[in-house]
Structure to design on (392 residues):
């Protein structure tokens, strides 16, 4: 039997659209399902706020399977907030290399410094304090405070947004502030409702927030949700209307932008020449094969500003044949990059500015490289060329 009348859920002005009893039953059902079906993710065996905070920062825009080895390596290398606060930026970028959105890594360190200075090295347990830290928004604050400290703070990520859109049949478009406001309000009402003595049912904030996210990540997925296995199938408005695929209501799409690049593979004595991106560029501080934009990304700030130039006054750059082509995406930019072999004459390491570096291919995994350069160095045409060059 449905727990509610669908029409009452359809009215977004109706405040919290479930009776206390329905809300309590849905909460219990979801938490029981989570008890049985939770994935054994490594950070779930930890209760310290630091480990959870790092996992939440990494999981933004990144798949769980990708994050696991990064999280393990990060915690192994920087096991405490103090270690993170002390870490050189270069090491931090190397640990983050391949995860993208590098501002997250820089903000982690800035926040760790603030935690060490203002909160005695302990992740704060007050929402206002957590929100005052660099890079920590309402989602991350809610996730850390609820999971680490079991506090009744809502945490709405894309998964929760999608689940609530469907469960309550919300008609606001995806990505709109109206949908965001509505879902946050619902999530806050529901988590605080669970705290009153009358409604206490063993569903802790820690379990509740994780269960909601898990439902979105594994059952109520963006494509082909498994409604037949969903603990809320008897109460879901989207399913009741037989319009699951219509929710969330699509939002305005950001047009993708094509970008044409040329990138240079400069090799000498078995080493590759890489350049560090400047502090004003996107992906600042990461190393890359020198790259320039052939067709700029129409009207937007250039992803790869500048032209090829030898890094020292005595050096001469000779660009040779095309070796391969790679495709890569950065947010909505669809990149096609032509890789060309090039030669730099008369540039000994002592002549190079500090932003240029000769590296051994075998060391590339431990350095902070852009995603495109990491991809480029794994291309068969490139690895073949490097192994031939080292045998010459
Ligand atoms: S019944 Fe289907 S659409 Fe509704 S919450 Fe469950 S998985 Fe999502």
């Amino acid at each position: 039997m449905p727990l509610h009348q669908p029409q009452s859920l359809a009215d977004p002005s109706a405040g919290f659209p479930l009776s206390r009893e329905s809300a309590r039953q849905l909460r219990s059902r979801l938490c029981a399902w989570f008890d049985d079906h939770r994935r054994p993710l490594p950070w779930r065996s930890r209760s310290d706020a630091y480990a959870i905070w790092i996992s939440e920062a990494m999981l933004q825009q990144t798949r769980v399977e990708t994050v696991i080895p990064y999280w393990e390596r990060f915690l192994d290398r920087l096991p405490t907030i103090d270690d993170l606060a002390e870490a050189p930026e270069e090491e931090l970028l190397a640990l983050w290399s391949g995860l993208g959105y590098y501002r997250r890594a820089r903000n982690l360190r800035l926040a760790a410094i603030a935690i060490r200075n203002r909160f005695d090295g302990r992740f704060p347990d007050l929402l206002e304090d957590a929100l005052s830290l660099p890079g920590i928004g309402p989602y991350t604050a809610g996730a850390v405070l609820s999971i680490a400290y079991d506090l009744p703070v809502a945490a709405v990520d894309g998964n929760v947004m999608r689940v609530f859109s469907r469960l309550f049949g919300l008609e606001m478009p995806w990505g709109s502030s109206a949908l965001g406001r509505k879902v946050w309000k619902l999530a806050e009402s529901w988590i605080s409702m669970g705290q009153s003595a009358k409604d206490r049912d063993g569903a802790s904030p820690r379990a509740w927030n994780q269960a909601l996210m898990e439902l979105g990540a594994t059952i109520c997925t963006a494509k082909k949700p498994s409604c037949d296995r969903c603990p809320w199938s008897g109460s879901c408005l989207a399913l009741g209307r037989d319009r699951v695929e219509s929710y969330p209501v699509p939002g305005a799409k950001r047009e993708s932008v094509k970008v044409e690049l040329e990138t240079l593979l400069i090799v000498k004595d078995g080493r590759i020449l890489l350049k560090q991106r400047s502090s004003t560029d996107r992906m600042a501080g990461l190393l890359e094969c020198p790259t320039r934009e052939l067709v700029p990304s129409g009207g937007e700030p250039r992803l790869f500003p500048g032209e090829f130039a030898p890094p020292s006054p005595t050096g001469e750059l000779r660009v040779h044949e095309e070796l391969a082509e790679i495709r890569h995406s950065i947010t909505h930019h669809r990149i096609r990059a032509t890789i060309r072999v090039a030669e730099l004459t008369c540039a000994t390491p002592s002549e190079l500015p500090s932003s240029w570096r000769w590296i051994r291919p075998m060391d590339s995994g431990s350095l902070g490289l852009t995603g495109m350069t990491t991809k480029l160095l794994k291309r068969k045409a490139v690895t073949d060329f490097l192994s031939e060059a080292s045998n010459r």
About this structure: Residues 163, 166-167, 219-220, 225, 227, 230, 232-233, 236, 238-239, 244 surround iron/sulfur cluster (CB under 6 Å). Residues 6-246 form a domain with the Endonuclease III; domain 1 fold (CATH 1.10.340.30).
